[in-house]
């Protein structure tokens, strides 16, 4: 995992994530519920991978398994050289809800992981927090409190908090799902810029096909529950850094259409399952 310097940084960028035959069953009052079929996937160090699929398909379960907050019923997960057998702490996690503390300022909210991990010197992390807030256009809001911010601004604070320790792995669970379309587009650009600065590994969960394609190096397409990987699509024909002009490229439209066709074939889009092509 690397040796920490005085700032607390490991000097690492992204770490490889490997899932080998990973499945998850939940015990319910009506018996076992299979949420995720055996899944094998490798996410390269520094790679941005989006996972797209219908609601309830196991996307969030997959994320929780990678984080170690859930343990697999079968299979093995590793991050770098470490097998995940308990909650993995050297990561950032961004939820759909920003989970900010309303009584703390924006700056002090970003510094929460630093306080929890007791990282020093604090001055280094305060400077890093200010840099992150400036990158997302919130440098004039450092001393404001979350109730004074819009939804998009609050989520920018949440992302800055997740990145304050420069974690080698960032997990994001539909972080922009509650935002309006224009704010969501701006957040996609903010996230891309931050990721390119840190160059960590990102696993991004979404149900928005366009968002998945715009952000990712590869897109994992999942079935309905019990979830399984239907396809893994390569987005390397879309140049980086990506701007909104990318969405006008025929390659971008082709990727969108391909994912939609997969969902139509599965009966997830375009009519009843009985009418879907087989």
Structure, explained:
The protein is built from eight helices and ten strands. With 278 residues, the chain is α/β, with parallel strands linked by helices. The protein folds into two domains: 1-91 and 169-278, Rossmann fold (3-Layer(aba) Sandwich), CATH 3.40.50; 100-166, no CATH class. The strands form two sheets. It has a six-stranded mixed beta sheet, sandwiched between helices. Strands 2-1-4-5 form a four-stranded antiparallel beta sheet, with helices on one face. Helix 5 (151-163) runs parallel beside helix 6 and helix 7 crosses helix 8 (250-265). The longest helix is centred in the last third of the chain and has 18 residues, at 181-198.
List keywords for this structure.
2 domains, six-stranded mixed sheet, 8 helices, 278 residues, alpha/beta, disordered N terminus, 10 strands, Rossmann fold, four-stranded antiparallel sheet
Number of helices: 8
Query: How are the strands ordered across the major sheet?
Result: 6-7-8-3-9-10
The helix/strand series, from N terminus to C terminus, equals EEEHEEEHHHHEHEHEEH
* Straight-line N-to-C gap: 46 Å
Number of strands: 10
The fraction of residues in strands falls at 15-25%
What low-confidence regions span 5 or more consecutive residues with pLDDT below 50? 1-12, 272-278
Query: What is the rounded Rg?
Result: 19 Å
């Amino acid at each position: 995992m690397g040796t920490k310097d005085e700032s607390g940084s490991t000097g690492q960028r992204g770490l490889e994530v490997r899932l080998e035959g990973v499945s998850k069953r939940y015990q319910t009052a009506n018996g076992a519920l299979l949420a995720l079929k055996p899944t094998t996937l490798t996410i390269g160090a520094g790679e941005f991978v989006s996972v797209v699929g219908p609601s309830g398909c196991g996307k969030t379960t997959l994320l929780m398994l990678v984080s170690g907050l859930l343990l697999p019923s079968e299979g093995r997960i590793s991050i770098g050289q470490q097998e995940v057998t308990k909650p993995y702490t050297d990561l950032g996690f961004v939820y759909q809800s920003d989970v900010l503390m309303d009584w703390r300022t924006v700056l002090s909210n970003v510094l929460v992981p630093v306080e929890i991990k007791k990282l020093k010197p604090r001055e280094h992390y305060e400077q890093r927090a200010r840099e992150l807030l400036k990158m997302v256009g919130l440098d004039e809001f450092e001393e404001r409190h979350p109730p004074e911010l819009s939804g998009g601004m609050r989520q920018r604070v949440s992302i800055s908090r997740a990145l304050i320790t420069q974690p080698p792995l960032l997990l994001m669970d539909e972080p922009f799902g509650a935002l309006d379309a224009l704010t969501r587009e701006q957040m996609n650009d903010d996230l891309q810029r931050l990721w390119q600065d840190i160059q960590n590994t990102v696993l991004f969960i979404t149900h928005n096909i366009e968002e998945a394609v715009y952000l990712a190096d590869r897109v994992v397409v999942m079935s309905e529950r019990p979830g399984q990987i239907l396809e893994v699509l390569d987005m390397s024909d879309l140049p980086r850094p990506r701007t909104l002009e990318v969405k006008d490229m025929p390659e971008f439209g082709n990727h969108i259409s391909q994912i939609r066709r997969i969902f139509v074939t599965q009966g997830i889009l375009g009519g009843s399952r009985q009418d879907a092509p087989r």
